[in-house]
């Protein structure tokens, strides 16, 4: 049985850029486009040439993609020809193989927002699409507010999309611009478009998540006949975001009837890279990945309930709707007061530590973890620190060194050239075996600039840890996150540090204190100890 | 036309507790239950009596609710009577008006996870439900894995739910336990249940968000006949979460055909409290609220695109699917390189600053904001700092004081009693007019405990700001968030500080530096200056 082709159109770089707090640089756009292309998407919308300097630069130095690289713009304004519209000209001049133009299809917007006649708008659509086609490009028409327009004035909304189709648009994309449509509205609108003479094979769907139905709305549109889905990575996008391609892709490839009925450009290998692609975007945006993200979130295959965890041990399909490996994700059994000893044993096993069933120390570890979490620690997000606590109880935590004291100073002042500078300095006193080592360091990056107290402490520590230095040389602090939380009745600061080493390991540790520097120091110490353990270093 | 009653069942305190990293205390549960009850939900599931000490305590000191307070448990085990099952007894002994028991309906789980015969499982369901009814309680049956079970062995799955119904269950709740079902699967399953003799008025739906369809799955179940929806606040819950009641409630109340067809327990006043209720849960969990959350997120009515923002100014319905006030949310026009001068003027207007259209300083402000954001500042999330930047350009920023220098020290050591302690001390030199003031402070909370360098700086500053002290006396740091981000090519630390005062104002400021202490200090200074401005203090 041959499967029908379903096309995926990514607008992360355009509609995704409308997300509050998101502002892609040229380099960001280039990296994301490459990732989208590797993933196997059919269209990559790069932005709006002429709208801002970054987008203009991005099109001037456009990436070479297997996917159809697409420029976004809007239909020409009334009172001039398509060839004489400078906004449209900037879009055409980007010389992309495809051009997507947004135009109005809701009568209210034509008269209120544009202030032109309904007839003028129809002509703008037809002339603009024809201009793109005449320029030898693939033309797409984004039918703005189509579903609201169809509800308000069905004849006019349908006339608009017919005008685009008849002018030669390869795709007429029905947009739920305000995001308020529900699945039954989408089904009705898509069916009406097909009945009005635009074939499903020429219809696309563009939804927003304002009622949390963007994914379902995309699926129902496909069921009603549409053959192109527009969306973004991680559901980025204006307001509540666009349809999340990261959720849609596995559903289309792994779930019936989609998997049997349709073929998309993403391969099974591409699917296995999905978790990585999703995290890459977060990384570029400096966002903490959403642990609850469908398919790719850190919690998506996490089994906290004791009953679930024990059934999973017998057969993972009991509580997993797909195998996590299929999307490049992994199963996780977290620690918590709801988890039983069997969860704990699995977690330790994953860290290479085997403990017999019924070992009384298991209960002690669970109790200690619980007590520490009550004080503000968060071991679910800091598995490396969890491992150290467990090792402590099991007698598997070598004493590499002790910190006797430290002092860190931050000075801000004006220097001789009247420039405002900060200087951070740390003194650390460490005991390794019988030796007492005192060392001092200023904080500095490669160019000698101050990096703050945690960096100063880390550098002073690295000096002091003489025998261990070769192991910690490639340790790098990648991120640290600070939150005020409750430790019992008092507010405390929780610091989570993500570290990396030259072997590609990445681990997270936690520190808790009312003092942000001390909380960071604790997490830093845990990170170093965990690294020494993983490298198999013997205590001096 | 009378509307049919649709019931909402909240499981935030039970299934929501399965979220990775969530661990409610007794006080948390009490606060959340009160909020759920005020909101107007019909059922509040409090937890599983006997499963852990917190849940047992919560039921022992149960809140008085207008909603039907419900205990969760599981059907009796095979080989003993319902009366002799100690797990079930603990649930019954909680003495709640309703009891919800989960039981298997998927043959594979009966034989694999439970290891009993299909017949025994049917008997366990019937006997357990009958036991609850005989105890004078309202009985609910959670049909675990119903949709997977219906696909695998439809006759058996239907036999299970009929057994519960015939034994007197008020509600038979069809659960998509693994979260893998799509809307068409849900429609089919609910219809089959109705056809098998369980009336829709006795059917509930319980979905999970593993394919990002939990909300759509709940809606389609109602369309197919179900009359109870189970879900959680903010979609909390195991793995990817449960159906999000915060998204479902406004859809059911404001969107057709639901609004005309159904009545729920939430009033329009309750609906207007929704944003607050959603934030309260985040507050209890110490989570940053999801800005993209449908209806209640900070970005849900944020209009970043310049074209959208100018249309909104003409008529908000052009780009808003509902009025934000209906759910207690608000419109927001952020600053960014995509925003035009009209957005900027609106933002300034909101801060009480009127600037004429076309004022050349508007372009200067936009440029400066853009340049600062390139260095790592984030003004969308720190509107108070944005206001100060704009005021600087407009000549509306009085010079209250200058900081000549500061020095902050953190010492960690062991005291005479061999306790590990930290001491933080700050020296700040400030000029106010012609006066040069130097002061020093240790960090300490009310009980004298160290609170770290930012607290020490804040206390030293407060001492120095003599003439302004009465104004900043009620200033309180509520939260601070730290992220590593990119300032141009270098990694820098961005600190966002949320402050509050005695008049109920809450504002956010930002500081950026490679040094976390200095970034905090900048945000702290902005916070103080903004407060002095808002209080109308004259510079000394």
Automatic annotation (TrEMBL), chains A, B:
This chain belongs to the protein called Citramalate synthase
GO MF annotation: an example: (R)-citramalate synthase activity
Assigned keywords, A-Z: Amino-acid biosynthesis, Branched-chain amino acid biosynthesis, Isoleucine biosynthesis, Transferase
Spell out the family assignment given in the record's similarity comment: Belongs to the alpha-IPM synthase/homocitrate synthase family.
> Per the UniProt entry, what are the Gene Ontology biological process annotations, in alphabetical order?
isoleucine biosynthetic process; L-leucine biosynthetic process
Q: Where are the transmembrane segments?
A: none
Q: Which NCBIfam families match?
A: citramal_synth
Q: Which InterPro entries match?
A: 2-isopropylmalate_synth_dimer, AIPM/Hcit_synth_CS, Aldolase_TIM, Citramal_synthase, LeuA/HCS_post-cat, LeuA_allosteric_dom_sf, PYR_CT
The annotated pathway is:
Amino-acid biosynthesis; L-isoleucine biosynthesis; 2-oxobutanoate from pyruvate: step 1/3
Q: What is its EC number?
A: 2.3.3.21
């Amino acid at each position: 049985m041959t499967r029908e082709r379903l096309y995926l159109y990514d607008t992360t770089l355009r509609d995704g850029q409308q997300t509050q707090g998101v502002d892609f640089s040229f380099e960001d756009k280039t990296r994301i486009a490459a990732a989208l292309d590797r993933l196997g998407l059919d269209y990559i919308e790069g932005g709006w040439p002429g709208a801002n300097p970054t987008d203009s630069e991005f099109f001037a130095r456009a990436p070479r993609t297997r996917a159809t690289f697409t420029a976004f713009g809007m239909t020409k304004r009334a009172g001039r020809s398509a060839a004489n519209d400078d906004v449209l000209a900037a879009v055409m001049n980007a010389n992309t193989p495809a051009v997507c133009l947004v135009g109005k299809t809701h009568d209210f917007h034509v008269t209120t927002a544009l202030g032109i006649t309904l007839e003028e708008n129809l002509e703008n659509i037809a002339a603009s699409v024809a201009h793109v086609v005449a320029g030898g490009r693939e033309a797409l028409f984004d039918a703005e507010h189509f579903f609201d327009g169809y509800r308000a004035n069905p004849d006019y909304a349908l006339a608009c999309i017919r005008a685009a189709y008849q002018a030669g648009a390869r795709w007429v994309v029905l947009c739920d611009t305000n995001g308020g449509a529900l699945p039954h509205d989408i089904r009705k609108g898509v069916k009406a478009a097909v009945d009005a003479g635009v074939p499903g094979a020429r219809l696309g769907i563009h939804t927003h998540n304002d009622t949390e139905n963007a994914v379902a709305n995309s699926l129902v549109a496909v069921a009603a006949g549409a053959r192109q889905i527009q969306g973004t990575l991680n559901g980025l996008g204006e307001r509540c975001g666009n349809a999340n391609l990261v959720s849609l892709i596995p559903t289309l490839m792994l779930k019936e009837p989609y998997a049997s009925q349709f073929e998309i450009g993403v391969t099974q290998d591409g699917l296995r890279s999905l978790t990585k692609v999703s995290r890459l975007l977060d990384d570029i945006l400096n966002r903490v990945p959403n642990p609850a993200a469908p398919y790719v979130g850190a919690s998506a295959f996490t089994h906290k309930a004791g009953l679930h965890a024990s059934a999973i041990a017998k057969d993972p399909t009991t509580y997993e709707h797909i195998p996590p490996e299929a999307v490049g994700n992994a199963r996780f059994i977290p620690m918590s007061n709801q988890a039983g000893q069997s969860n704990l044993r699995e977690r330790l096993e994953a860290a290479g530590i085997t403990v017999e069933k019924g070992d009384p120390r298991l209960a002690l570890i669970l109790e200690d973890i619980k007590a520490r979490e009550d004080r503000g620690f968060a071991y679910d997000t800091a598995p490396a620190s969890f491992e150290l606590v467990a090792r402590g109880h099991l007698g598997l935590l070598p004493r590499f060194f002790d910190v006797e004291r430290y002092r860190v100073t931050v000075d801000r002042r004006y220097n001789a050239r009247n420039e405002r500078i900060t200087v951070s300095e740390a003194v650390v006193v460490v005991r390794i075996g019988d030796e007492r080592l005192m060392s001092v360091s200023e904080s500095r990056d490669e160019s000698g600039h101050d990096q703050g107290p945690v960096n100063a402490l880390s550098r002073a520590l690295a000096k002091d840890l003489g025998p261990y230095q070769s192991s910690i040389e490639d340790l790098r602090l990648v991120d640290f996150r600070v939150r005020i939380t409750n430790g019992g009745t008092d507010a405390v600061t929780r610091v989570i540090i993500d570290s990396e080493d030259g072997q590609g390991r990445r681990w997270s540790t936690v520190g808790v204190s009312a003092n942000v520097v001390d909380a960071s120091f604790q997490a830093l110490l845990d990170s170093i100890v965990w690294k020494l353990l993983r490298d198999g270093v013997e205590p001096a």
